[in-house]
Structures are given as C-alpha cells and as structure tokens.
Specification:
The structure holds 2 protein chains of 2 kinds. Chain A is built from no helices and 11 strands. Chain A is mainly β. In chain A, strands 2, 4, 5, 6, 9, 10 and 11 form a 7-stranded mixed β-sheet that branches. In chain A, strands 1-3-8-7 form a 4-stranded antiparallel β-sheet, with no helix packed on it. In chain B, the strands form 2 sheets. In chain B, strands 2, 4, 5, 9, 10 and 11 form a 6-stranded mixed β-sheet that branches. Chain B is 0% helix and 55% strand. Classes of the chains: A mainly beta, B mainly beta.
Chain lengths: 113, 113
C-alpha cells in the first residue's frame, strides 16, 4: 500500500515565481489536508479538502495561496509570487474519515531565494 | 494563548527509562486526541489515537486523556534509542471544525544508549 505521495521533495523558487506542490492521498482516502511547518515551529493547519470541495480553508493566507483536490488527479497547493517567508516544509495528509488521525506524506521543502 | 501547549523539552533520558510527554489545551470542544512521532526531515507518523477521556495502550506506548483537566499524556516504557524523535500531540473537535487538527509545537526526545 502506497502512503501519501508528495512531490517534489525539494523545490527552490526565486522570489516572485510560482510554486506548485502535489499530493496523492492514500488510496481510498477522500479527505486531504495541507499543513505548513516553519523551522523550529509546529505544524500549522492550512486547508482541508474533499474531492472537488474546499471544506475548511481557515488557515490559508488570504492572498497568493490556493488549493484544489480535483475529481481526478492529485491535490495541488499553489503559491503565487513566492516570498522568502514562504520557505517552509509543506506536509500533506489524508484520512478515510474526517475525525481521527492522519497519514502524512514526507513533505515538500520549499526554499525561496 | 495557544489552543494547545506542549512541554517544550528537549528531553534526554537513558535507554530503558520511562518517558512522559504532556500537552494541555484550552478548547473544550476537542474530542479526538492524537500523538505523532516525527523523525528529522520526515513526515509525522501517527502513534496513538484516542477518543474522549481514558487510557489506551499499544505495546510500550500508553496514551492518557483527562478531559476534565484538559490534559493529555503519552508514556513510553523501556525507551529505546530508536524512540529518539520529536513527538507531537494533536487534537480535533470532530463534528465541529471537522477534519482540522491542532498540533502542539513538539517535544524532542533523545534516548541515550
């Protein structure tokens, strides 16, 4: 059984470029979550999605960030016009139901130069 | 004040010791309580998942939840060097704020041979 697959593992972008992070959940999991982990800080919730729906985006910055989980294909977290403060590890997680524990991916480490 | 406060550590113990990791929380709506283990540069891994108050045991790990005190603990018996990692507590409210988990900032544990 494949776990949560995230790619790329490492992503370097110059200030002002776009970053696209991909996440394929565990097969059969319909709930996807994105979290951000800044250096020496805990995991901060960004967004919770089900297929074709954003359920809770209360943790998403109001500008430049967007997420989708289309009917077919992986979930995408998109960051437009990246700034140095966006440098962090972005983790995707999935679960078979909305409550309880998640399965996390290995993360995408975004570095903005 | 953060919704979830975790003893910051770091914690260093000799092999074989009993380890106690603790979190407090302020949101009385939390019903689901999780502990994750995160190795350096990896995604968090779900260790224990508990619903409501009580104890849950799994091998060398015991999770305790005291909702009246808003306090949760993870005990590790006969600790091993391979237990060296950062431990994250997490909580979710279930039906309200469905899906979203709030994490503590983590406690880094080192078990010395």
């Amino acid at each position: 059984n494949a776990g949560v697959m995230q790619n790329p593992r490492h992503l370097v972008r110059r200030r002002g470029q776009e970053a696209r992070l991909r996440c394929s959940p565990v097969k059969g999991h319909s709930h996807v979550y994105w979290y951000r982990q800044l250096p020496e800080e805990g995991l901060k919730f960004m967004v919770y999605l089900q297929k074709e729906n954003i359920i809770d985006e209360s943790g998403m910055p109001k500008e430049r960030f967007s997420a989708e989980f289309p009917k077919e294909g992986p979930s995408i977290l998109r960051i437009q016009q990246v700034v140095r403060g966006d440098s962090a590890a972005y983790f995707c997680a999935s679960s078979p139901k909305q409550s309880g524990g998640y399965t996390f991916g290995s993360g995408t480490r975004l570095t903005v130069v | 004040q953060k919704e979830v406060e975790q003893d910051p550590g770091p914690l260093s113990v000799p092999e074989g010791a009993i380890v106690s990791l603790n979190c407090t929380y302020s949101n009385s709506a939390f019903q689901y309580f999780m502990w994750y283990r995160q190795y350096s540069r990896k995604g968090p891994e779900l260790l224990m998942y508990t619903y409501s108050s009580g104890n849950k045991e799994d091998g060398r790990f015991t999770a305790q939840v005291d909702k009246s005190s808003k306090y949760i603990s993870l005990f590790i018996r006969d600790s091993q060097p391979s237990d060296s990692a950062t431990y994250l507590c997490a909580m979710s409210a279930g039906n309200t704020n469905a899906g979203k988990s709030t994490f503590g900032d983590g406690t880094t544990l080192t078990v010395k041979p």
